[in-house]
Amino acid sequence: PAEVEAYRKKHEVTVMGEDVPAPFMSFEAAGFPPEVLKELLKAGFQAPSPIQAQSWPIVMQQKDVVAVAKTGSGKTLGYLVPSFIHLQNHKNNSRMGPTVLVLAPTRELATQIEDECVKFTKSSKISSTCLYGGAPKGPQIRDIERGADIVIATPGRLNDLLETKKVSLGQVSYLVLDEADRMLDMGFEPQIRKILKEIPPKRQTLMYTATWPKEVRKMAGDFLKNPVQVNIGNTDL
Ligand code: ADP
Ligand code: MG
Question: Which positions does the motif Q motif occupy (predicted)?
Fold first, then answer.
């Protein structure tokens, strides 16, 4: 409809894929669980950012998604909010590993994602933890054993814990590659490939990136199934 076209034009939203749903132009339109909606409104946000508005309905259809939007455009909640809904439908009582796995390039970014996650899950039963190098493994292992639903990890530390069988990824059904371009720039591709071998193929895979160079395209081609792509602005970078 004209309203959808107007929104996409105004916010420079480009979509590629089959049967792409209309963007959620307001938080209320998304049909989120009340506790999630409450936190979004409490944060003082006016409306979903364009990458959220267009990627949320696609992710909620359980499709694989490539989302390309510049830094600061709200990509974190783009994948976190639908992960909360995914968790309601994918109960996993394993104390050896999470349902939702987010890979991020650095300790700093992983920590920021975890902070955002905690902020929006305060009033729910969802638990999360962050795994990164340069810190003792003991407390991280204890958090896994307590049954964290969401694990946010840097590839190096996660591989370490996989090799020593401190974590299992056999229950992961929602996988996010955040800052995919930076992870590849930092040389994490072999680590990411090793990690992905541990995750069952029956899963939803999302890739969020600020740029879309050929290395990232290649990885998307290798790991995502029939993805829908959403670009915001000029992402021919
Ligand atoms: P990116 O991952 O694209 O670089 P972030 O997810 O880190 O961006 O978000 C950047 C900032 O915008 C964060 O402080 C976040 O809380 C805020 N933010 C997220 N969604 C919205 C929104 N819908 N409206 C206003 N601010 C938002
Ligand atoms: Mg980000």
Answer: 25-53
Question: Average pLDDT of the chain?
Answer: 95
| ipTM above threshold 0.95 | yes
Residue 5, helix vs strand vs coil: helix
Any atom of ligand 1 within 6 Å of the Cβ of 17: no
Which amino acid, residue 157? R
Of 49, 118, 152, the residue with max ligand 1 atoms within 8 A of its CB, to mutate for a pocket test, comes to 49
Any atom of ligand 1 within 6 Å of the Cβ of 76? yes
For residue 9, what is the enclosing H or E element? helix 2-10
Does the pTM surpass 0.90? The reply is yes
Nearest-CA residue for atom 10 of ligand 1 = 72
How high is the pLDDT of residue 235? 59
Q: Note whether 208 and 74 are within 8 A (CB).
A: no
Nearest bound ligand to CA 115? 1
List the one residue out of 96, 110, 102 whose CA is nearest residue 83: 102
| Residue whose CA lies nearest to ligand 1 atom number 18 | 74
* Residue 237 confidence class, pLDDT cut points 50, 70, 90: low
* Ligand 1 atom closest to 71 (CA): 4
Sign, CA torsion 25/26/32/37:
positive
Please work out whether the CB of residue 52 comes within 6 Å of at least one atom of ligand 1: yes
Residue 168: is its pLDDT beyond 70? yes
- CA dist list (Å): 17 to 52, 128, 131, 227: 17, 32, 34, 7
- For residue 73, give every residue at least 6 positions away whose Cβ sits within 8 Å of its Cβ, in sequence order, or none: 49, 50, 51, 232
Between 40 and 94, the higher pLDDT residue? 40
